[in-house]
Amino acid sequence: MPFQEPPSRETTTPSPFLIGRDSRGRWVVRQQNGQCGGLFVDRASAVRFAMFENGRRADGIVIVAGGLEFDAQGGAEPHPHAA
């Protein structure tokens, strides 16, 4: 029987990272599925974190206009006053 390589762990597209500002002006990064995230003082740090966590995939980052609130219990939610 010929050797077969095991299936890749990346069989599905990873959940994208959302980046936006909360109502207090902090930068929020949160994986859409809620597995990973954080609060940052500047946009560059937020983007650097998201790029590191997603394997340097720019297409795996979504900049949210209108605000993004951090929710440690369930994920990132759009700001209630977002247009």
Written account of the structure:
- The chain is an alpha+beta fold.
- The protein has one domain (17-78).
- Helices cover 13% and strands 25% of the residues.
- The protein contains one helix and six strands.
- A four-stranded mixed sheet has the order 3-2-1-4, covered by helices on one side.
- The mean pLDDT is 82.
Radius of gyration: 16 Å
Mean pLDDT: 82
Any low-confidence stretches, pLDDT <50, length ≥5? none
Strand portion, in percent? 25-35%
Taken together, the total number of domains comes to: 1
Q: Biggest β-sheet: count, sense, barrel?
A: 4 strands, mixed
**How would you spell out the order of helices and strands?**
EEEHEEE
Task: Enumerate the strands of the largest sheet in spatial order, edge to edge or round the barrel.
Answer: 3-2-1-4
Number of helices: 1
Could you say which structural class the secondary elements and strand pairing correspond to?
alpha+beta
- For the termini, the CA-CA separation is 59 Å
Helical content (DSSP H or I, runs of 4+) = 10-25%
Number of strands: 6
Coarse shape = elongated
Write the topology of this structure.
Elements: E1 17-21, E2 27-31, E3 37-40, H1 43-53, E4 61-63, E5 68-69, E6 77-78
Parallel strand pairs: 1-4
Antiparallel strand pairs: 1-2, 2-3, 5-6
Structural features:
single chain, 83 residues, alpha+beta, two-stranded antiparallel ribbon, 13% helix
Quick summary:
The protein is α+β, with helices and mostly antiparallel strands. It has one helix and six strands; from the N terminus they run βββαβββ.
